[in-house]
Every structure is written in structure tokens, then in C-alpha cells.
Amino acid sequence: MTEIFWLIPFIPAASTLILAVFGKKLPKKYVSFQACFAVFASFVISAISAVGLLQTSHGNYPLIKNLFSWIQAGSFQVNLSLMFDPLSAIMALVVSGVGFIIHVYSIGYMADDEGYTRYFTYLNLFTFSMLILVMASNLVLMFVGWEGVGLCSYLLIGFWFEKHSAANAGKKAFIVNRIGDTAFLLGILFIIIHIGSGEFTAINGAISGGAISAGLATLIAILLFVGATGKSAQIPLYVWLPDAMEGPTPVSALIHAATMVTAGVYMVCRMNLLYTLSETAGQVVALVGAITAVYAATMALTQNDIKRVLAYSTISQIGFMFIGCGVGAYAAGMFHLVTHAFFKSLLFLAAGSVMHALSGEINMKKMGGLRKYLPLTYPTFLIGAIAIAGVPFFSGFFSKDAILTKAFAQGQYSAFYYFIWGLGIMGAVLTAFYMFRLVFLTFHGEERLDPEVKKHIHESPKVMTIPLVILAFFSVVAGYIGLPVVLGEKLNFFGKFLEPVIEEAHKVHLSMQTEWMLIAIAAVVAFLGIFIAYVFYIRSPLIPRNLATRFPGIYKLMFNKYYVDEIYNAVFVKPTIKGSEIIYNNFDLKVIDGGVNGAATATGFAGKILSYFQSGLIKDYALIFLLGVIIFLAYLLF
Amino acid sequence: MIPANYFLILSVVLFVLGAIAFFIKRDLITMFMSVEIMLNAANLAFITFARSANSPDGQIIVFFIITVAAAEAAVGLAIILLIFRQKKTIKSEDMKLMKG
Amino acid sequence: MGYFLFFLLAAMTVGAVLGMIISKNQAYNAIFLILAFACMGGLFALLEAPFIAVVQIIIYAGAIMVLFIFVVMMINVHSGIPAEKKKWIIYLSPVLAVVLIIELILSIKGAFSLPVSTEIIKAGPTDLGRLLFTKYLYHFEITSILIIAALVGAIVLVKKKEKK
Question: Which residues touch A574 (CB under 8 Å, ≥6 apart)?
């Protein structure tokens, strides 16, 4: 049954083609139906294939389907071949499943938009690219998918392209991604040079066979990771993600929460043998992830735009995933990816529902007390917030705990990992805090609504609220597929499922006591964050204002995102533009245009000279005849 | 029997003279006449070779050349007449329509 | 005897052509050319081509040149044609002439050593006629079509447009 897995990316691809060519002539209802159905079909096939995987014996992993031979250069070959193993299965399920839910949500959210067809075309194209990315069996094809999702991100962020800020945001996303991609390509090149092939099976074989030294592995791993920082919005290439909120909210949910930004995490997990081999690279990954987690969380503390808070939250959570990968708990990182996909997209969609209800208002300062008016949105949003905060028994708790436990356990090797664990705990507190700040400001407290907006307040249509309910359900339930090891090795279904692909690095054992203690700390931390938020925003709402006035410097720094955008602008963007202008004026205009125009002028000039010979008189022509005959005879004779 | 050399040299001289006459002269009729001279020089050469090769085929060729020359002269002169009617001149410098 | 005739006729031909070149009067040019053709006829006769010689005189000197003279008369150019303006052509021409003569003679050098047979070839009207109607039949017929075409063409070209 798993044989049909290669269809998974191509159904959305076919849908994209049809919509792209015929879209304008098709009725709106059909467009949405086809788009959603395509993704649903992918989901069904993914599910069937995944079930089939459970029944296949481990020796047959991974299943590879070679579709056609793409590049053949001597001994180097790249094929369009797709592979299906537990890791791809999980990603495919997440992409198509959450993607389907978001497609359905979009029917309601984008109902009044002019670019309805264009939107669904781009969404399907994105689904296709992402599925290629996760199912590629070699690095080069994965890079194709990588670029494809970057393109779709650009198209969808700048969806309302008449808005200046949206167009600029799209450009920024694409360009920043590109910078990461350069490093990524370099990494791929190194791999191909040293191993001779981009196929993951070949790479894994080479690494376990010892063909790569630790130093080389470090270099490659770091290069690939820089590419991942671009795509997954970590330091230093995260600057595009907050701006990407200019796009429609479902786009933010799908691309910038659940799927595209997690591509980096997927890549690291796919190359897990490489990161295990190079201890340094793993530490770099964990460190960057941890710092980003805390850094982004601090910026989320002060933002007033709902979607910006969620964007910084995404950056922070992905930092957590990278912590997991960096310390060797790849399965835990993937686990957090899955749970995060559910609750983050839930949060985004619910935020979209709030915005829809308030006719497009995004500033939290103008909200408050909405729980009365939005009886379905509020509970689902709350569930999402609880999940992300890491409250026990909800999904976020299990995944975060898995990561932090492993980080702490690694501390036995070196104190560095304790530091990582500390940052992780700090991140967890901040996460709970800013998340509930968001909840309290939006749904509780006094109403600060615009009177005009208040008149039109309404709960969203069913097509938007039902997806919320579904996602809320999963946000609660999804955690139970990966219960902590403390409760029994056998209960970690998730880890077991991934075992053939991902080996947990440096298996360390902690005593039962330590594990329970860590679980307790995680729970306490979550509740602490929620409590502080409660105090700040419900009990004594004046505290935030006082803190801001007492520490104006720090507040300004956080509110302005540490001025990173401005620094990048001055250091990188302006000189590049200046340099381009200089080159344009001196080289392009003078040399290249001069050369082309010069050729034309020279031809004209030559033509003018030659025209003197065309006098129109027969005699001159006959003279030239004669001269020709003489010369020719002379040539023949001598 | 006069050797063929002499006739051939004569033919060459006549041909070149005809060619030069074509350049020097400025009126159309004389230019046309110089073309006839060239044709005749060729005829002479043909007859010489006919005698050398001992076959009358060369003379048949000359026969045809004369005929064709006659036809060509007729048409050419008709054209010259027309040109004169249009331009009222037969100086070749005035036929400059194809300039450039 | 033959040589004397040859040199006489050759000299007269060349002289006539030179005269045609030098003279500026078109009628004189035509007369010089008639003389040249007549001498050519004589040369043909020397070359044992009696029929062609006579044909040359009758058609070339007799018909074609008369045509030329008709046209000269019709185109009544009152003022003479002035001398060539571009002097350099006049100086260039002898040079070119000499060069070309030398080249051409060099080209046909190989034919100088052809043997001359002592037999008199059969080139009378009967023989030529026989050849014309057997071996060169196609050429003959096509040439006749050519003549008709030229005839019709010349007449159509020169016809004056009918006044309405």
C-alpha cells in the first residue's frame, strides 16, 4: 500500500497547474473545492502510506521511488526520486493535514478577496514544494523544494502587493532567505565533493563508514545550519519573519508556523548523523537555538500587534526545536515540531478569527474583554495558549519537557548543556508570560474597543471555527503519542516510530528522581509565567506601565526589536545599494551600453563608407568588374 | 597557313579595346557598340579554334552568337530610345537612379 | 600572300576600333564600326569559314549597324558630348588595357601550340545546314523563339501610347 507514496506531492501540483491555467474562468466555489480536495487527497495517501510503513519490516527502509534521471554529469548523478520513511511520513502528514485544515479556513477568511483564485493557486504550489522538500531522497532535490517554498513565501507574503509594506516584506523574506541559501548550497557542494552523491542513503553510509572527518563534518554542518537559520528564522537571519505578518493570516499559520519555517529543523534531523558526528556543530545549533529562544521571547513581551507577538513566539519555539536537535534529541525536536504545528497554527487562525470579528484590527491596545463576544474563538485560543505555555497534560508540555530533559542530561558531559538548559527554562517562563499577556489583553479586562468596530462584532462563520476546534483537539491530544520515558519506554510511540531514521545521540540515563524533578520544574515554570501575567495585566494593570517608565532604555530596546533591522539596513543594505549604483553608472552604462551602441555606430559608419561605391553609374560598376577580372586572372596565373 | 597565335592575339587585343572603350565613352550608344566589339572578338576566337580543331562546330556557335547579338541589339536600342524619350539625354552620368 | 592579307585586315580592324574610341561623333563611331566588321568578315574568310564571313557582313555590318545608325539619327543630339571629366580614367585605361592583354595572353598560352591541320574543313552552307538541323536542332529552334521574343519586345517597348 505504501507504493503509491510518490503521488503525494503531485496531486497538489496537478491542482496548481489547473488553477494556474484555468483559474480565472472557474467559479469560486469550485476553485476552493479543488484546492482543498487536492490537499486532502495528499493527506489520505500520506496516512495510508504511513500506516503501511508501520507494517513494513525495518529492513526495507527507506522506500525510494526514482522518477527520472535529472542531472547526469560523468559519475555524478541526481535523480528526481522521492523517499518515504518515518521522518518523511511525519512531515508529510503534518504538512498535508494542517495544510488541509488551513485551506478550509481560508475559504472563509479570504471569501471577500479579489485574488481568491490566485491565493489558492499559491497555497497549492506551496504544498507541492513543501512535500517535495520533505520527501526528497537527495539533497539537491530537497534544495529545489527549499527554494520552491521560499518562492511561495514571497508570493504569499506579498499577496496584497499593492500595499507597499507587503511588497517590501515579501522582498525582504526572499532576499534574507537567499543569503542563507548560499551557505546551504556551499554545504551541499562540500558534501557532493567529498561523498560524490547527494543521496541521503549514500551520505549516511559515508558518515557511518567514517569517510568524513569531524572537522569537515563541522564545516558542512554549520554551513547547512546557516541555511536553516535563514529558512527557520533564527539568529541572525530571522528579520524577515515579523515583517512576513503582512500576508494573510492563514498564510502566516501555514507557512510561518507549521511548515516552511520548520524545514530547517527537518533538514537537521534528516542529517542527524552528521550533527552527531560533529560535537561542535551540535553545540552551535543548540546555542543559537537557545539564545534565539530567549531573545525572541523578550521581544514578544512588548509588542502590541497580535500577529507580531505570535511571530516572535514562532521564532522562539523553533529555537527550542533546535535546542532539541543540538543536544542530540532529534526525536524530541521533531516532536515539538509536530505539537507546535498544531498549537501555533491554532493560535494564528484564532487570531485571524479575532481580526475578522473586529474588521481587521490588529492592535491589542484596542481590544479587551472579547471573550463575551467570541464564544468559540476564545476557548480555542485559550487552549492553544495553554498548550504553548507548557501546562501539564497538554501537548506542549510533553514536547518541551522531552527537549529540556535531554539538555539537562547532557549536562553530565559538560556544563555547557546546563547553560542551555537554563536558557531553555528562561525561555519557557517568558513564553508562558507573553502568551498569557496576549490572552489577558485581548479577551479579558476592560474593553478598549473602537465604537465603530464594536458595532460590527460577530463570531466567525463555521468554515472558520470548525478548523479551530479540530486544531484545539489535536493541541490537547497530540502530546500523548510521545509520553516521557519516565512513564515507561514503551509509551514513547513517537520516538519508537522514528528510531530507524534517527538515532538519539549520546544516550544518557538519568535517574528516575532527576527526571521527575525536571518534569516538576517545567510545570512550575509554566504556572509561574501564567501567574506573573495574571498579576501584571488583571490584578494590577499599572505594573507594566510603571516598569516601562522606570526602565525606559530597556523598554525602548525591546520594543524596537533591539534595532536589529536598522543595524542591518545601515551595514548591509545601504552599502550594497550604493555599490550597485556606482557599478551601474560606471560600468553598465559606459562600458556595456557603450560597447553595444558602439557596434551599431561602427556598422552605420562602415555602411556609409561603402555607399560611396554605389554611385549608380554603370561605368563605375563595369570598372570594378574589370578590376575584379584582372585580379582574379592574376591570382590564377601566379 | 597562318598559325593560330596571331588570330588569338588579335582577338585578345580587340576584346580589351572593346572593354576599355566601354569605360571611356560617355554616351550610351557608343558604349553599346563597344559591347558588340567584344562579342566579335569572341567570334574570332571561336573560328580560330574551329579551324584548329578541324570541326565546324565552332562556326555553328558563331552563327548562334551573331543571331543572339542581333536580337540583343534590337532590344537594347529600343530601350535606349525609351530612355532618350524620358530623359532627353543619353549621357551615362545622368542615369543615376540606382545611387546608394 | 596570306600573311600580307592577315596583317592588312588586322591593322584595319584595330585601326577602325581605335578610331571609334577616339572619335566623339556618334555617326562616325558607327561608320568606323562598319569598317571593323567588314574587316572581321575578311578575317573569317581567311580562317576558312566562308559562310560565316558572309553572314557576318550581311547581318552584322549590314543589319545591326544600320539599326544603330537609325537610332543615332533618331536621337538627334545637337550639342556634342564633351570630353570625359574625370581625367584619371583616361590615364588609367591604357594601363588597365596593357595589364589585361598580358594576362589574357598568358591565359591562352597553352593554345598556341595547337597543330593546324592542312585539310580544308567542310564549312560550306550545306555542311553547316546539315549540322544545324541534326546536331544543333534544339539550339536552332530556341534561338528562333528568342528572335521572335526580341522582335515583339522591341516593338512593344517603343510603341507610343495611344492618345485618348
Answer: none
Let me know if A383 is exposed, middle or buried by CB neighbors in 10 A (0-12, 13-18, 19+): buried
d(CA C27, CA C20): 10
DSSP 8-state symbol, B91: B
Across C47-164, where does the E strand assignment appear?
A: none
CA distance A608 to chain B (A): 9
- Report DSSP state, residue B13: H
Hey, how many other C-beta atoms are within 10 angstroms of the C-beta on C25? 14
Contacts of B34 (CB under 8 A, 6+ apart): B18, B19, B21, B22, B25, C20
Any idea what DSSP says for residue A111? T
Residue A562's Cα: distance from chain center in Å? 23
Task: Compute the nearest-CA separation of C90 from chain B (Å).
Answer: 7
Decide if C103 and A626 are in contact by the 8 Å CB cutoff. Answer: no
Distance from CA of C95 to the nearest CA of B (A): 10
Q: What is the pLDDT of residues A390-420, one digit of tens each?
A: 888 888 888 888 888 888 887 777 778 888 8
Question: Is the CA virtual torsion A423, A426, A431, A434 positive or negative?
Answer: negative
Say if the Cβ atoms of A633 and C104 lie within 8 Å.
yes
A182 touches chain B (CB under 8 A): no
Q: Cβ(A289)–Cβ(A300) under 8 Å?
A: no
Rounded distance between C-alpha atoms, residue A211 and residue A191, angstroms: 11
Query: What fold does the segment set C1-80 form as a domain?
Result: Four Helix Bundle (Hemerythrin (Met), subunit A) (1.20.120)
User: How far is the C-alpha of A123 from the C-alpha of A31, rounded, in Å?
Assistant: 12
Mutant choice from B61, B77, B84 vs C, greatest count of C C-beta within 10 A: B77
Q: Considering only the beta carbons, identify the residue of B19, B31, B100 that sits closest to A614.
A: B100
Q: What is the pLDDT of residue C38?
A: 94
Q: How confident is the model at residue C122 (pLDDT cuts 50, 70, 90)?
A: confident
| Residue A187, C-alpha cell as written in the block | 554545504
List CB contacts (< 8 A) between A629 and chain C: 100
Can you tell me whether residue A138 is helix, strand or coil?
Answer: strand
User: From the CA atom positions of chain B, what is the Rg in Å?
Assistant: 17
pLDDT averaged over every residue in chain A: 83
Pairing of strands A63-73, A76-84: antiparallel
Of residues A70, A53, A39, the one with CA closest to residue A5: A53
Q: Evaluate whether ipTM surpasses 0.90.
A: no
Check residue B15 and give its pLDDT.
Answer: 93
Interface of A with C (CB under 8 A): 623, 626-627, 629-630, 633-634, 636-637
DSSP calls for A403-429: HHHHHHHHTTT-THHHHHHHHHHHHHH
B-chain residues within 8 Å CB-CB of C49? 47, 50-51, 59, 62
Nearest CA in chain C to B77: C71
Q: Hey, is the C-beta of A73 within 8 angstroms of any chain B C-beta?
A: no
Task: Using CB atoms, list chains with 3+ pairs below 8 Å to chain A.
Answer: B, C
**Pick from B19, B97, B100: which is nearest to A626 by CB?**
B19
Q: B-side interface with A, Cβ within 8 Å?
A: 19, 22-23, 31, 92-93, 95-100
Q: Do A626 and C104 touch (CB under 8 A)?
A: no
**Helix (H/G/I), strand (E/B), else coil: A82:** strand
Cβ–Cβ gap A633/C103 under 8 Å: yes
How far is the C-alpha of A408 from the C-alpha of A423, rounded, in Å?
Answer: 11
Total CB pairs under 8 A between chain A and B:
28
Instruction: Report whether A261 contacts A231 (CB < 8 A).
Output: yes
Q: Is the dihedral of CA B5, B7, B12, B16 positive or negative?
A: positive
Res. A549: pLDDT tops 80: no
Report the gap between the CA of C99 and the closest CA in chain A (Å): 8
- Cβ neighbors of C161 (< 8 A, separation 6 or more) are none
